[in-house]
Automatic annotation (TrEMBL):
<dbReference type="GO" id="GO:0008045">
    <property type="term" value="P:motor neuron axon guidance"/>
</dbReference>
<dbReference type="InterPro" id="IPR013783">
    <property type="entry name" value="Ig-like_fold"/>
</dbReference>
<dbReference type="GO" id="GO:0017154">
    <property type="term" value="F:semaphorin receptor activity"/>
</dbReference>
<dbReference type="GO" id="GO:0030334">
    <property type="term" value="P:regulation of cell migration"/>
</dbReference>
<dbReference type="GO" id="GO:0050772">
    <property type="term" value="P:positive regulation of axonogenesis"/>
</dbReference>
<dbReference type="InterPro" id="IPR015943">
    <property type="entry name" value="WD40/YVTN_repeat-like_dom_sf"/>
</dbReference>
<dbReference type="InterPro" id="IPR014756">
    <property type="entry name" value="Ig_E-set"/>
</dbReference>
<dbReference type="GO" id="GO:0005886">
    <property type="term" value="C:plasma membrane"/>
</dbReference>
<dbReference type="GO" id="GO:0097374">
    <property type="term" value="P:sensory neuron axon guidance"/>
</dbReference>
<dbReference type="GO" id="GO:0007162">
    <property type="term" value="P:negative regulation of cell adhesion"/>
</dbReference>
<dbReference type="GO" id="GO:0008360">
    <property type="term" value="P:regulation of cell shape"/>
</dbReference>
<dbReference type="InterPro" id="IPR031148">
    <property type="entry name" value="Plexin"/>
</dbReference>
<protein>
    <recommendedName>
        <fullName>IPT/TIG domain-containing protein</fullName>
    </recommendedName>
</protein>
<dbReference type="GO" id="GO:0002116">
    <property type="term" value="C:semaphorin receptor complex"/>
</dbReference>
Length: 457
């Protein structure tokens, strides 16, 4: 079905019937109960060749039609709409295959040109073969570090055999210009091919050529010809993203490396200058990789990222990790907290914001109690930590002291004043009758136990 010159029209509907039949010279038009309009070319009294099929998806049309002989058209109703069927016009054919295919049996010299079917004054021009059409090629860029890439090309490949297709990517290189993309799979609307990647950044032009393996006759619709894809194929050097791209000189920063595409299960080694950054996390499915750096020589050092994949050095845009001065703790307050914990301890210092995960550690004298809280960086000179919650089952009787230290990524700091005193929790009595009088000085009086200890904090 569809202008391929088949001699048999077959419907899947056993109840299909003719609604109308129109004939003019060797043209036969049949409307069916399936809302199809079929155009045939009659070669003799017994053979009809199907050259076009139109399908209408609205309500069924009836058997009434009007012939516009001036424009060689049938006019009929489908539901409440009028339709014109130009039975003897080249514009009837909307594909190259239907346009050129009609030449096998129809004397009308239709040709396919500039994406449409039109009448030609020269019946021997463009009367055979259909041009290659390329709609899209993906991907259109590739990392210079990968060995090869699979291109998916969508377009018109119906009836095309793989050995008749040549795909070249031409790069302006001194040692080699043309790189062949080897066909892997081909189907009617797409093909895939494998391209070996040159080892330097460059842009190339993709050309697709299809040749015919036979001499075409008039009306043959074989696809052939050449197309240069307008968009250039780009080989690029990747730019890694480091998060964070700075850290304290003492090392221990967990660095996430993003924007790189490793092959599945590649063996990867990461270096900052010549020092290896030990990989702590590598998710193959998402190419998410994380490493922990070693100590810098000094806090001014700028370390270049280097990556080895399967023992080969990768090409990367220049990417650096900046070493900074180590954090310093000056003091912290208050130095008293309650059994229930959760009190804000204000820590002052310098270079605090270079630390990824600052923590405050609390240990009792008898070492039966150990607690670590994660602190919040407020600025380069201040952070807030929460005092520990003391388990009442430990039989620690307040007041008692616990020792304090700070864990700043790869650095442990014991402050000059490292004792936190723990006192009992305050107890508040309810107001009498839930009402409390406010005196003339706007002071509200609370009553309870242990208030002096805790409110002095």
């Amino acid at each position: 079905v569809g202008a391929i010159g088949e001699r048999l029209y077959q419907s899947v509907d056993s109840n299909v019937r003719s609604i109308f039949i129109f004939t003019q010279d060797n043209i036969v038009v049949i409307g069916t109960s399936q809302r199809h309009v079929l155009k045939f070319i009659r070669s003799n009294q017994t053979i009809l060749h199907l050259v076009h099929e139109a399908i209408y998806y609205n309500e069924p049309f009836n058997s009434q039609y009007v012939v516009d002989y001036e424009h060689e058209s049938l006019i009929f109703a489908v539901g409440i709409e009028l339709h014109r069927y130009a039975y003897n016009s080249c514009s009837l054919y909307d594909t190259c295959q239907s346009c050129i295919g009609s030449r096998r049996y129809d004397n009308k010299p239709c040709i396919w040109s500039n994406g449409r079917c039109s009448l030609s004054s020269n019946s021997n021009i463009n009367d055979r073969g259909c041009p290659l059409i390329i709609n899209e090629i993906q991907p259109m860029n590739a990392d210079v570090n990968i060995e090869s890439v699979t291109l998916t090309i969508t377009g018109s490949f119906e009836g095309v055999q793989a050995h008749l297709v040549t795909i070249l990517v031409t790069f302006p290189l001194s040692n080699q210009h043309d790189f062949v993309c080897t066909i892997e799979h081909i189907q009617n609307d797409s093909l895939t091919c494998n391209l070996i990647i040159p080892k330097q950044p460059v842009q190339g032009i993709i050309s697709i050529n299809i040749k015919s393996d036979r001499e075409l006759s008039m009306g043959d619709t074989d696809i052939f010809g050449s197309v240069n894809f307008p968009e250039k194929f780009n080989i690029y050097i990747p730019k890694a993203i480091l998060k964070p791209d700075y850290g304290p000189a003492i090392g221990g920063t967990k660095i996430q490396i993003e924007n790189l595409d490793f092959n599945l299960y590649s063996t990867v080694k990461i270096y900052l200058d010549k020092q290896e950054c030990q990989i702590s996390k590598y998710d193959y499915s998402t190419n998410e990789i994380e490493c922990i750096n070693q100590a810098c020589m000094n806090d001014k050092e700028r370390l270049e990222l280097n990556i080895q994949v399967n023992n080969h050095q990768w090409q990367l845009e220049k990417t650096y990790f900046q070493c900074r001065a180590n954090p310093i703790i000056f003091d912290w307050y208050p130095k008293k907290s309650i059994i229930s914990g959760g009190m804000k301890l204000i820590v002052s210092g310098q270079n605090l914001d270079v630390v990824q995960k600052p923590m405050m550690k609390f240990i009792s004298n008898s070492s039966i109690f150990e607690f670590i809280t994660v602190c919040e960086i407020i600025s380069t000179s201040q952070m807030i930590c929460l005092s520990p919650i003391i388990d009442k089952n430990l039989d620690l009787i307040p007041p008692f002291d616990i020792h304090v230290s700070f864990i700043m990524d790869n650095m442990k700091i014991i402050p000059k004043h490292d004792i936190l005193m723990i006192v009992v929790d305050p107890i508040y009595y309810p107001f009498e009758d839930s009402i409390q009088q406010i005196n003339s000085s706007n002071i509200v009086q609370f009553e309870g136990l242990n208030l002096a200890e805790t409110h002095s904090i």
